[in-house]
């Protein structure tokens, strides 16, 4: 269980740290903080070292927060199929905040030679980091989700999911009488027919590749051929077979060559 959650978290972090906009935003934030010099860092550093300090702090803190919060959420989603949204927010904030506070302590110890500086002192550092992380997690889940009101594209199937599982639709698979809907933020079992789920996924560019599997084109990582059969690997690492009856449709869609 922990291994699966860890792998998914690392894949999510890789996606975050290969996104140019996210990297640019972190760099800009680090430069701005370096110029302002909050938490008495204006008194500790000259301008260039101060900017370097804050860029380092932003990147390391972001990585620690994304890992801690992401791992907590992924573990919860594996234990409970439909966890309470406030439990997710609380655990994400604690997991993220604790690791961020460790980064703050370690960076200050290495760079300044002291665990504490004015504004970054004692147990209050961990408390502040956790509280801020909980607030950020709440804002992200409640207001910054992709299906927020006013978004240009509404996908019906996503509205059925718990808030924390709503993200980019990757694929859907039949499991007995349920459809397992998998997004970039999690997965959830819905009691419905695949045909109805496909209708509610209208607006997403995708196709049925097997009687039990529907995939979104943007959710495909790569396509392999094994022993004469086509296998589609999705962004979360799941490998789905293309049935012989759907090969031509997949070729017509440009997924198979």
From TrEMBL:
SMART domains the record matches: LytTR (SM00850)
The HTH LytTR-type domain, residue ranges: 169-256
Keyword Ribonucleoprotein applies: no
PROSITE patterns: HTH_LYTTR
Residue stretches spanning the membrane: 21-39, 51-73, 85-107, 119-144
Domain of life: Bacteria
Keyword vocabulary terms for this entry: Membrane, Transmembrane, Transmembrane helix
InterPro entries: LytTR_DNA-bd_dom
The protein's name: HTH LytTR-type domain-containing protein
Organism: Maritalea porphyrae
